[in-house]
Write a structure and sequence with these properties.
2 copies of one chain form a homodimer. In chain A, helix 1 crosses helix 10. In chain A, strand 4, helix 2 and strand 5 form a beta-alpha-beta unit. In chain A, the strands form 3 sheets. Chain A has a 7-stranded parallel β-sheet with strand order 3-2-1-4-5-6-14, sandwiched between helices. Chain A has 328 residues and is α/β, with parallel strands linked by helices. Helix content of chain A is 34%, strand content 26%. Chains A and B meet through helix 1, helix 3, helix 4, strand 13 and helix 10 of A and helix 1, helix 3, helix 4, strand 13 and helix 10 of B.
Chain lengths: 328, 328
């Protein structure tokens, strides 16, 4: 019997989950749930059913795991706990400052309902988090560094779009190569925000807009750009659509540490991702953890979990003996 | 109360575990066990006790986890199951073809005794295995590649030392840079053994030995060298001691995969290690998994486990809420 999956929310991430399910033959797509008019949604999967979001409440018996594909700003803070009362759930909640509160809320709902809720899986938080944990446990005398990019930051692109006179924009976060190299050489540098990343902005302005003012507003924007070396390129809408349509991302987690009688031996652990599509990769992680949620639920577990709490073998469709023979 | 650790075997790996324990304040070294004369052992830790190996049999109540630091060829195939009858145990068994049999044997002994036995933890098998599993689960439509080095292969160095006329030798396994780059570019190349690694040999010969014969015997040695591009450098014993005293190693696990409606998006996951000391890094992994063995045993678990079966949080001395706040 296949694991029956629901997709709640059908933006880039939801569609990524739909693609990922097609690569995982032990799973099947039971339905896509949307707050838009279900008639307006065209799923990629032949014969896939689209439901109104509120229909999910009557489908408790039909879905093993609901994968929540909404945003961390407004959707997931309420949705994850809400649906954990009905289903095993998985989300990619990434508002770091609120993970503690989100965990507590989902844990209470999932425990009460006897469901498993896995939160904050994707690549950061998610795979990067796992690498930070493993590396610190192995090399306790050390330091870790996270670099993001080169990749599109949706939040920073949105911030530029809110400036008067801006039609559209795409912002790339770029790690400073010299800083990455210094860390990889084990130099253990102290790096300021400005020394770790630069920000590249591609901006389409309204005709006749004051470009100098727009550039200045971007570069001086607190939190988003003021602490970074930022470059602004004005381009046409055609160029934006032609050259910046993708949603690539990636980055690295590096830990350097010392061992030996007097710390005489240095070690470098580096985990790097280069992703053509941020949402599709995140979807791949969500689907693997959905498998784990289903299995943990079958064992009678309940409550909230993160990637830290889940034995790796639970993510794989393979048998344990196969994993030991082929991947160990 | 600290986790009480025993070290069985006091070579490079055992000493590495001793160093690692000094970096992990939740653990203490109960004793070092050796088949040599205990009086001949000089531990690094002030006041550390050294016992004859057979004394371990009377210390069931004194040790929470015995870390087995013997070799995979002759020690661990008998030791791990033997000591799993008395203690929770951890080993770095790495004879790949025999992992299935080793698992079965340790599982039976540990289950019967109500102990936890964790096998094959180190970096490969160990951290590389974990990265192969996670990456395949996330990107099922893809391929993985493992490159080792640049680093010293003990087995290949030993093979050279057995040649007539050789005084000492050090063999470095070196990944072919072009092959690594092609994989990282997502080209998904088919690579022969020769295309993935080269072998560099530094050899000290007896005075008057036939160097051409030694070089030929190395380069044509089946399994070890015949399938590789091998270079042989004859050096003096002084040069060997001065320039090749360390035991560095490392390598990479890379998985490349496709996602999207028609596999139009490529992704690269790369995990890389650069280690000044192979045994000290391996020791760091063993000690983190010893913590997990202790915790799993406290929960009443028993039997054999690999890195695949262990929730990552069990490796860390940190509280779960701290991990969520700082590393997630």
């Amino acid at each position: 019997m296949k694991i029956r999956i629901g997709i709640m929310g059908y933006g880039n991430l939801g569609r990524g989950v739909e693609y990922a399910l097609a690569q995982n033959p032990d799973m099947e797509l039971t339905g896509i749930f949307t707050r838009r008019d279900p008639q307006s949604i065209k799923p990629v999967t032949p014969g896939a059913k689209v439901y109104a979001a509120q229909d999910a409440e009557d489908m408790e018996a039909d879905i093993d795991v609901m994968i929540l594909c909404g945003g961390s700003a407004t959707d997931l803070p309420t949705q994850t706990a809400q649906y954990a009362k009905l289903f095993n759930v998985v989300d990619s909640f990434d508002t770091h400052a609120n993970i503690g509160a989100h965990y507590a809320q989902v844990n209470e709902a999932a425990k009460e309902a006897g469901r498993v809720g896995i939160i904050s899986v994707g690549w950061d938080p998610g795979m990067f988090s796992l690498n930070r944990l493993y590396a610190e446990a192995i090399l306790p005398d050390g330091a870790d560094y996270t670099f993001w990019g080169r990749g599109v930051s949706q939040g920073h692109s949105d911030a530029i779009r809110r400036i008067k006179g801006v039609v559209d924009a795409r912002q790339y976060t770029v790690p400073v190569a010299d800083a990455v190299e210094a860390v990889l050489r084990g130099e253990h540098p102290e790096l300021s925000t400005r020394q770790k990343h630069t920000r590249e902005c591609y901006v389409v302005a309204e005709e006749g807009a004051d470009l100098a003012r727009i550039e200045n507003e971007i570069k001086t924007m607190p939190n988003y750009f003021a602490d970074y070396d930022t470059t602004v390129h004005f381009i046409s809408l055609e160029e934006l659509k032609r050259d910046h349509a993708g949603i690539p991302h990636g980055g690295r987690v590096i830990r350097t540490g010392k061992t030996g009688e007097n710390g005489e031996h240095g070690h470098v652990i580096s985990y790097e991702l280069k992703l053509d599509s941020n949402p599709e990769f995140t979807a791949g992680v969500l689907v693997a953890f959905a498998r784990a949620a289903y299995r943990m639920s079958l064992r009678g577990e309940s409550g909230c979990r993160t990637a830290f709490d889940i034995a790796p073998a639970l993510l794989s469709p393979r048998e344990p003996a196969w994993l030991r023979e082929h991947l160990l």
